[in-house]
Structure formats: structure tokens, C-alpha cells
Design brief:
Radius of gyration: 21 Å
Structural class: alpha/beta
CATH superfamily: P-loop containing nucleotide triphosphate hydrolases
Number of helices: 11
Order of helices and strands: EHEEHEEEHHHHEHEHEEHHEEH
CATH architecture: 3-Layer(aba) Sandwich
Strand order of the largest sheet: 6-7-8-3-9-10-12-11
Oligomer: single chain
Helix content: 25-40%
Distance between the termini: 29 Å
Number of strands: 12
Bound molecules: iron/sulfur cluster
Shape: globular
Largest sheet: 8 strands, mixed
CATH topology: Rossmann fold
């Protein structure tokens, strides 16, 4: 299988504004120093054509930033992102629609839709702007787009507030697919929906993957959501990938203590892991990540070496990579 997306050593930082303590210290003569948040810190990943890659980790671990970089919404500071072997051009610099191949579906469909824009305009705005369809074709095009996501044509002239949360997310999916992408980044795309609606939207994503041979980067804080859709799962912690494996392998043979802790928190997901401790403590601030292995302050098996040595992501089995100094002993 060829890769549609490839990331090489991708990094992205943000300079944050000084907080109250910093401002007071500066007012009293302390030297002001910029606070740099390393949201994504050296990520290598591939997504194959037709593959669903799940990306899990706690809120604040950098997975949404990574999704936005892959979608071309946010430029990386360094490293490379390729779409079909060509560097992804940041959407803010695109004039020719060359970035249409990767689209994004967000967590909150109410915020993602313009309340003053009718559904037909919502769906056809981008394809008209990029010359994919003529204005005269808009209604027929939108009817087909709605049908594809399970909505009827009487939605055409209505507005977002007239739909339920699940229906609004279907409209967002129809809009994303309207420019015929190969890759869809789903950023917590079912997190705001009721559990019964979540299952419907997940089934829709899978159905569309099969029909259109789409690839997904499926981002979620909830590993029990990701395991239903993903061919492989990448686990992210404080800006770095700490484990990557085919879904079944990751669930049956997790090797990183962070992955084990995430799995231990999901009731009934893996009976073999019920003796593993759940996650302890808070996610450290990415403004000052721990030295050595970033997980060491929360790791139940950390050694002295873990405080000073940063583990690299290394293969422990075919297709299975882990960033842990004790990975093999621990398997
Ligand atoms: Fe735990 Fe050490 Fe492995 Fe990090 S390197 S996950 S601290 S055992």
C-alpha cells in the first residue's frame, strides 16, 4: 500500500503570553523570558491509502496541533509533511486549491458551520470557488452530497440551527467530501455527540471509507472510540508518539506504560490489563516537559535512567514501535 501522508521529524511550538506571575516578576525587574510550548516535538508518521490511523492521547498532548499540520491549516516549524509524495502547502498560502486533498472534520459542528449560510451554500461554496462545479450545478451537487451522508434534499434551504448535533456533523462531513479529498482528519469528530449518535457517525465514516477509498487520521482522547475505527493506533504523549502498532496488536500486547494506563481506564476493553494501574497524576505542562522520558513522573516502573535518558521510538515487533527504555523487558 502506498502512503498518502508522510510526516518526517515534524515540530511545532507556540510562544505563550506571560502569565500573571511572570508579569509581576517582570514588573519587579526580573528578566522577561519567552515561554515556548512544544506542542509537536519530532513526529514521524505515515498514513496509507485507505487506512484509518487512530491518534490517541490526553487533552493537551498535541494531537489536534498535529492534525491541523497534516490538514495544512497550521504550518510546522520544521520537518516535512508530504501528501502523495508532494510537500503539503499551508492552506493560507494556497491559491490553486492544491490542498483540497486533505480535509478536516472538527469536534463541534455547531461552531464549524456558519449559522447564516444555508446548507446548499455551505456544501457548494468550496467546490464553486475552486472551479470543481458551476454555480448552476450547485443544487444537484448538494443533493447528492447530502444523500451520501444520509440526509434528505429538504435540508438544502435550511440553516444549521434547524438540525440536531448528529445531523450537523453529517453536514460537516458532506462539506469536507464536497472537494473530493483523499484524506480526512477527524478531530474528536464524535466527542460532542450522544453515544448512540456516535456509533451512527462512526459507521458513516467507515462506510464512506469503503465507498470512496478514503484515508483518515482519527483523533480522539478516547481509545475505546479509536479502536472501533482504526487499522493502526498511534499513542501520543506530550508532543511525541510513544507507541504505534496495528490496532489488534496494540490492544493485546501494549508495551508502553502510558498505553497500558490508558487501556486500564477503559472498562471491559482488555481483561488482561485489569491489574494494571490507571493513569496517575496530571499531564505535565508542555511548557516545561520532564527530562529524560517525559512520562517518568507518572510511570509506575520508572528507573533512575528514565529521568535522564530520552527513549527513541524503536521497533519491537513487525509494525510495532515503542518509545520506552524498558520496552522489551516489559513486554
Ligand atoms: Fe516508564 Fe522509563 Fe519506559 Fe519512560 S522509559 S515509559 S519512565 S519505563
Amino acid at each position: 500500500m502506498s502512503n498518502v501522508i508522510e510526516l518526517r521529524s515534524v515540530r511545532r511550538s507556540f510562544v505563550t503570553k506571560p502569565d500573571l506571575a511572570d508579569r509581576i516578576a517582570t514588573a519587579f525587574g526580573a528578566k522577561s523570558s519567552a515561554r515556548v510550548l512544544r506542542a509537536v516535538d519530532g513526529v514521524d508518521l505515515e498514513i496509507a491509502q485507505g487506512e484509518v490511523l487512530g491518534l490517541v492521547g490526553e487533552s493537551g498532548c498535541g494531537k489536534s496541533t498535529l492534525g491541523r499540520i497534516v490538514a495544512g491549516i497550521l504550518p510546522q516549524d520544521s520537518g516535512e509533511v508530504f501528501f502523495n509524495d508532494r510537500p503539503i502547502v499551508n492552506k493560507t498560502q494556497q491559491k490553486d486549491g492544491s490542498g483540497l486533498g486533505v480535509q478536516m472534520v472538527f469536534q463541534n459542528p455547531a461552531a464549524a458551520l456558519d449559522p447564516r449560510q444555508s446548507i446548499v451554500d455551505t456544501i457548494t461554496e468550496a467546490p464553486i470557488a475552486h472551479g470543481l462545479i458551476k454555480r448552476s450545478e450547485a443544487r444537484g451537487f448538494a443533493i447528492e452530497a447530502l444523500k451520501r451522508v444520509g440526509l434528505r434534499d429538504d435540508a438544502l434551504d435550511r440553516y444549521p440551527h434547524q438540525f440536531s448535533g448528529g445531523q450537523r456533523q453529517r453536514i460537516c462531513i458532506a462539506r469536507a467530501l464536497a472537494v473530493d479529498p483523499s484524506v480526512v482528519i477527524c478531530d474528536e469528530a464524535v466527542a460532542s455527540l450522544d453515544v448512540s449518535i456516535q456509533a451512527q457517525i462512526i459507521n458513516l465514516f467507515l462506510d464512506l471509507r469503503d465507498k470512496l477509498n478514503l484515508s483518515y487520521l482519527f483523533i480522539s482522547h478516547d481509545i475505546s472510540v479509536v479502536e472501533h475505527v482504526s487499522d493502526r493506533i498511534a499513542v501520543m504523549y506530550l508532543g511525541q508518539i510513544v507507541e504505534l502498532a496495528p490496532t489488534e496488536e496494540l490492544l493485546e500486547n501494549p508495551q508502553h506504560p502510558y498505553t497500558k494506563a490508558l487501556l486500564a481506564e477503559v472498562p471491559g476493553l482488555d481483561k488482561r490489563l485489569t491489574d494494571e494501574p490507571g493513569l496517575e497524576g496530571e499531564l505535565p505542562s508542555p511548557l516545561s516537559p520532564p527530562t529524560g522520558c517525559r512520562f517518568h513522573p507518572r510511570c509506575p516502573i520508572a528507573t533512575q535512567d528514565c529521568r535522564s535518558q530520552a527513549p527513541r521510538l524503536e521497533s519491537t515487533a513487525p509494525g510495532h514501535q515503542v518509545a520506552c527504555l524498558l520496552a522489551e523487558k516489559n513486554s
